[in-house]
Amino acid sequence: MGIVSPSSLLPLSQTKNIISSSSTFAFSTQIKFRLDFRRIMSSASKSQTQCVSSSTLYQVPGLDPLEMDSIAEKTFERYSSNTVKNNGKGVSLVWFRNDLRVLDNEPLFKAWVSSEAILPVYCIDPRLFQTTTYHFGFPKTGALRAQFIMECLGDLKKNLMKKGLNLLIQHGKPEDILPKLARAFGAHTVYAHKETCSEELQVERSVARSLRQVVLPPTQGNSSRSSLSHSPKLELSWGGTLYHLDDLPFNINSLPDVYTQFRKSVEAKCTIRGCIKLPKSLGPPPSIDDWGIIPSIEQLGLHLEKTTKGMRFMGGEAAALGRVTEYFWKKDLLKIYKETRNGMLGPDYSTKFSPWLASGSLSPRFVYEEVKRYEKERQANDSTYWVLFELIWRDYFRFVSIKHGNSLFYLGGPRKVEQRWRQDQKLFETWRNGCTGYPLIDANMKELSASGFMSNRGRQIVCSFLVRDMGIDWRMGAEWFETCLLDYDPCSNYGNWTYGAGVGNDPREDRYFSIPKQAQTYDPDGEYVAFWLPELLPLPREKRNFPGKSYIAQVVPLKFGNTSTQRSKYGGRQSRLQSR
Ligand code: FAD
Questions:
Q1: How many other CB atoms are there within 10 angstroms of residue 548's CB atom?
Q2: Mean pLDDT over residues 493-522, rounded?
Q3: C-alpha angle with apex 548: 544 to 551, nearest 5 degrees?
Q4: Which of 48, 102, 236, 532 is the most exposed place for a label (fewest CB within 10 A)?
């Protein structure tokens, strides 16, 4: 086993028929439009057998740190402006939340324009790192995501320093820390990004309330207020979606309950705003003796099992920009995304942007601009569009969370569906630990625990199995995902789970995924299951997903039977839903 990372060690050959490496590029270019997804996956599987051992570890992106830094530096350069004017006064704070980036960061921009000095702050909030999920007591942030976020902070600090600033690391609740800092530095404003879900909104309200308790003397702060004593303001910007909330062609309460209607409407009537450009230097920051230290996972009270196989995502904006460069430009995979995106094995069947989008190390508007640049410089096709199509799903769930509020977290979901669910702990644990007796479920759940990631295909399958075949309370699954996923984001997670459980806002969504059929379509040679369940490796390929008695016993029967040919009562609807 070895970690696969810097270019010299890149496992390109392992994925050569799904995607291109320089030597196989011509081949994949010739075949890509003629092959349907199934054939691509099976040819991929064949090549992978030779090269993917069941202990391969992929670093994502597969670039070395110097290369990532150089990509970040060049990108910052491209996105800097020397025409922005600063005529502000005093000090302002930039409170970093799920926006751990420099590029396309509006609060940072506004702080620079309105002040003489900026103090960037991140609060290590015990409510994120030292508590449990709402109902079922799983760790609120699992060790893998905590590690990823700490890496994001390290990289953010580095990038802010390159811009002449720094990052103050504080331990505690933002509503306790920010007012103290605002008082100590006489900050006239705290700039931050706006969130949409209840826990984050509660923190915003508490911060605003506690800032109102701070009285700044007349001589300090913004010139327009300098003759009066005043309190620091909290100024929130919208900034995590492709489409800006203010640009939507309807009031948020009239957000369509059908995704396609939403997408068509925004595509027809809205434009995506350009990325915010910052000046090259934003410094210097106020003088501070101790900028704080980014804690280790152990200091956060968590324990990290070493990732030994699967994917190891590198946290931080440099890694995010590196992954965009790697996926779009170096490996030239964007043009085949639509054909490969339903894969499950390895880093290159899909973009893998989600962990960086969720932590805010990557701006979706930057991804949009890169797609447009690629379409201009290389080619535009269904695949280049499809990445945007998927990003619009992400936007959609964010807007759904505003329209439907807390109902996204309730058992009956936005549609208040009344249904009986089980909370059978033992059964749930077989799902969580990957011991259900169904290799496709078990492999996906093991991947989630080991690497903090699971493909979109895998997520839909394990969700359907938990809620439809086991009949278990979907919130148990959603909370386990909340713990484990590197890309956990309340809107996308609970949005997708409510859809999967049939309680989402779209009344037409009701999904059942047949495991035998999914296995035959997306893992026909059992490569994926054998990667995560090496005990299946010796079996003939066609048996790996159907191992019978040579694997652990199945804990529940499938609702619609065990054979891939059996049709469920969902009939045609099932295939329509699977094809999304
Ligand atoms: P790609 O296929 O490369 O897609 C590009 C981007 O589009 C993704 O990075 C993501 O930002 C967005 N996207 C794609 N599909 C979806 C989708 N169905 N919903 C929302 N955004 C999407 N995604 C999260 O980011 N966070 C979550 O907590 C999350 N929980 C999920 C739970 C379930 C039960 C399901 C079925 C899906 C969930 N997803 C979640 C959506 C999706 O599975 C991941 O975004 C995707 O697998 C990430 O891999 P990628 O970046 O390679 O995606």
A1: 8
A2: 92
A3: 70
A4: 236
Tell me, what's the pLDDT at 471? 97
Cα–Cα distance measured from residue 141 to residue 220, given in angstroms and rounded to the nearest whole number: 39
Tokens of 259: 């995704």
Residue 55 binned pLDDT confidence (cut-offs 50, 70, 90): confident
Residue 123: in which H helix or E strand, if any?
Answer: strand 117-124
Q: Which of 162, 440, 112 is nearest to 276 (CA)?
A: 112
* Per-residue pLDDT, 224: 54
pLDDT score of 46 more than 90: no
Nearest CA, atom 32, ligand 1: 493
In the beta sheet, which residues pair with residue 187?
91
- DSSP assignment of 93-152: EEEESS---STT-HHHHHHHHH-SEEEEEEEE-HHHHSSB-TTT--BSS-HHHHHHHHHH
- Percentage with pLDDT > 70 across the chain: 86
Q: Candidates 359, 456, 491: which one to mutate for ligand 1, based on the most atoms within 8 Å of Cβ?
A: 456
- Mean per-residue pLDDT for 508-515? 85
Q: State the Cα angle at 542 between 540 and 544, rounded to 5°.
A: 70
pLDDT of residue 239: 97
Roughly how many angstroms between the first and final C-alpha of the chain, as a whole number? 36
* For ligand 1, atom 4: residue with the closest CA: 390
**DSSP string computed for 439-468:** HHHHHHHHHHHHHS---HHHHHHHHHIIII
In eight-state DSSP terms, residue 420 is: -
Statement: residue 495 has pLDDT above 50? yes
Backbone phi, psi, residue 472, to 5°? -90, 145
Torsions phi, psi of 353, nearest 5? -75, -20
Rounded Cα–Cα distance for residues 232 and 85 (Å)? 23
Distances in Å between the Cα of 170 and the Cα atoms of 122, 174, 180 are 6, 9, 11
Spell out which residues line ligand 1, taking CB within 6 angstroms: 341, 350-354, 357-358, 387, 390-391, 393-394, 397, 455-456, 459-460, 463, 481, 485, 487-489, 492-493, 496-497, 500
pLDDT digits (tens, 9 = 90+) for 219-230: 644 555 556 789
pTM reported for the whole predicted model = 0.91
* Predicted confidence (pLDDT) at residue 451 exceeds the cutoff of 70: yes
- Residue 187's φ and ψ, nearest 5 degrees, are -70, 130
Which residue has the CA at smallest separation from atom 11 of ligand 1? 354
Q: Which residue pairs from 182-187 have beta carbons closer than 8 angstroms and sit at least 24 positions apart in sequence? A: 182/93, 182/211, 182/214, 182/216, 182/232, 183/214, 183/216, 185/91, 185/93, 185/119, 185/286, 186/90, 186/91, 186/216, 186/217, 186/220, 186/221, 187/90, 187/91, 187/92, 187/93, 187/119, 187/221, 187/232
Q: What is the pLDDT of residue 570?
A: 35
How far apart are the C-alpha atoms of 477 and 494, rounded to whole Å?
Answer: 10
- Do 315 and 98 meet the contact criterion of CB atoms below 8 Å apart? no
Residues in contact with 480: Cβ distance below 8 Å, sequence separation at least 6, in sequence order = 136, 138, 432
